[in-house]
Amino acid sequence: MEQERYKNVLTLQDEVISRAIATMRKASQKAEKLCNDYRPLLGGERLLTDTEVADFLKVSRRTLQEYRNDGILPYIEMKGKCVYKESDIEKVLKTNEHRTAKRMGNTL
After folding, report:
1. What pTM does this model have?
2. CATH number reported for the structural domain that contains residue 82 in this entry
3. 3-state class of 42 per DSSP?
4. Number of domains in the chain
5. What percent of the chain has pLDDT over 70?
């Protein structure tokens, strides 16, 4: 009679439960990625942290501070934290782009 009572109990080894757990794990990973990739918007503009910009430009955060001090990179300061408009970073890169291939007589 005791076996009859536990006959319909589901365990982690049951296929239905295993699939449900796998689906929940995938959903959790997607939600975590969305949360990690989310950046606040300013008029539809993506804002980047100093760490993200430094990583992208392959410079130290100290060098990034020098760029700010020298007026090279525009930034927004909120409560002591600096953020950068993605479009401003793109403009600075475009403005300072040098095409060495043209200097050597090659065309791009």
Report:
1. 0.55
2. 1.10.1660.10
3. strand
4. 1
5. 81
